[in-house]
Amino acid sequence: MGLLKYFKGNSEDPISASHAQEISEMIQVCDEKSCHGECEGDESDIEEGETAFAKLKIDHETPLYNSSKPPKLQFVVPTSQIDWAHEACSEHTSSVEYQISKWCEVHESKFKKVGQGVNLRCAVSSLPKNIMDVQVMKRIKNNVLVLPHFIWIDGLTSDKVNETLDKLVPELLTKSTEELPLELMGLRLAKEQAFVFICSHMKRDKRCGIMAPYLKKTMDKQLQHHGLYRDNSDFSPDGVRVAFVNHVGGHKFSANMQIYLKTPNTLIWLGRVTPKNTPYVVNELIVPEKPRLPWPEKVRCLQKYNCW
């Protein structure tokens, strides 16, 4: 019991001692009191968000750890939207995201024993799309972010999805990024040091749609203090981009936050995140070279990938 008390943060969320120990072996765990959770600037946004969160019915009884599956690859398609149809990737059957999601469904079992993680996933996000490109506006072309590799597939068209992924995915799961001829393959490296995705899928569950804007606002303010905030027009390197994403599963654990860190090649997927947690996310998980985790009880899954 003493071990569990040491590892557990100051929250009501349950976690077993064995799970807390397992998490601590993958990432340094710190006592919330010793972590840097100071809010930079006005705290009114955090207080407003906490008030909104308190009104929502959230499952605090079910342990979070292993309630989600870390992807081997996550394809993230920009849409410039913050909400989508109930089945987001199937809204337009001619779209790039639809073709990617179908490819993942068909081929996932083929790569079961290759690479780290469990599944192949396609998501749509609020990342900006090129509104000046007619094909992009018709959804038959888009740039696609591939995580955890931090690379972009540029100008991928719907009719080339199968051909492209047939060649690319085996390479990504067996080789480092340095071994890939990126330009020849139509790829480029993402400049960001981290991507943070917050589920905002209101049409799936209103709790996500309510909490996501509060979290993004408070995250962005914290990142500004460190010079890491990047808006949709700022592509300077080594920043952190926070964006909305469609349903990730487990909306009863809202708010859901996926944190992809380029260094040390890690996905930290949190649940039951509230605005008061965001200073800790920035100051302890994103800013330091070696991240520290204040609340293992909020971890849905944690995956350390090979150095790409």
Automatic annotation (TrEMBL):
<dbReference type="InterPro" id="IPR009737">
    <property type="entry name" value="Aim32/Apd1-like"/>
</dbReference>
<dbReference type="Pfam" id="PF06999">
    <property type="entry name" value="Suc_Fer-like"/>
</dbReference>
<protein>
    <recommendedName>
        <fullName>Actin patches distal protein 1</fullName>
    </recommendedName>
</protein>
<dbReference type="InterPro" id="IPR036249">
    <property type="entry name" value="Thioredoxin-like_sf"/>
</dbReference>
